[in-house]
């Protein structure tokens, strides 16, 4: 007969079985691992709340990869205890997720979700460039991936550059190779070999004369033209030196104005992609320069397609005012703003404690100013120093000042 006690026992057994697929690693790991082993590792700290939230997800990932027969081993390491291993992998924050494959370390910077981490493990743990040998395999890959890069043709210098780019960018996207007869009938290539990106229901071919370096082109094109963005994607775009255009709308129950904004952005991103793709990767109503933490705002309401195009052209030609940035002035403003927001939140939730905190900060500032003012040298001090500490009469002081002026 089933009872709550049996339920508790079953949950404990499931937890133990899941933990069996995640190995605890220490400083001896680099010496004991095999050269061909592939490891997905999470570095954590016992006091880190985000690490604790990720822990059950991590055990699910270990169990699922094992059940799928993946060659990826899953481990975790307490970075505060195994400091040597954490230093080896240059761990700076927690939780840190990375993969070790044939001596190469790949950092994961995506969302801390089961699907995101599993996709990273399958992508990096598998072949660097995956072969699509049939029409059905090609269609299957198209159905699974919003963005995919495909090399078409025989061995060439271009293929070497493509493989080199894949070694670095495999953490972000998938790389495939195929022959021309495997591609959909609608795909027309001017010449072979070629590198093609499939996204947004269409395709674009790499042109060295127009697009420059292949790796830089792939890094720009690995994002859809129009998508729902999150913080991880936003900063990934910043790392690719993109100016990011954002439409800020409600998450649910979009009003008529929000729907119109989304429609404008989506239309411009599709119809004018060739013109803006090299400068503005994802269109929207705020253009963000993540390399300098700066941004551009439209000077007037954007109501038509022409208005949005004028805004983008103004960003490119410099006629739209650049705001924000990393100057000392802006950093001081941000610091003051953050203090103001924090104090306002504290005062609203705990008025007595907030008032005490404000008074304490003001008292510290007053003491600092008092000490600085008190230690400030006066004219009398300077004169005393000039006279060797002897008392000087007003007449003598006046004479001395006159002598100084004549000098």
TrEMBL record:
Q: Does the keyword Lyase apply?
A: no
> Which segment of the chain is annotated as a signal peptide?
1-22
Q: Which reaction does it catalyse?
A: Catalyzes the rearrangement of -S-S- bonds in proteins
Q: Which Gene3D superfamilies match?
A: Glutaredoxin
Q: Tell me the protein's name.
A: protein disulfide-isomerase
Q: Does the keyword Ion transport apply?
A: no
* Species per Swiss-Prot/TrEMBL record: Gasterosteus aculeatus aculeatus (three-spined stickleback)
Domain Thioredoxin, which positions? 7-126
Membrane topology per the entry is: Single-pass membrane protein
Q: Where in the cell is it found?
A: Endoplasmic reticulum membrane
Segments crossing the lipid bilayer: 350-373
What's this chain's function?
A: Probable disulfide isomerase, which participates in the folding of proteins containing disulfide bonds. May act as a dithiol oxidase. Acts as a regulator of endoplasmic reticulum-mitochondria contact sites via its ability to regulate redox signals.
Pfam family name, one: Thioredoxin_6
Cross-referenced SUPFAM superfamilies, in alphabetical order? Answer: Thioredoxin-like (SSF52833)
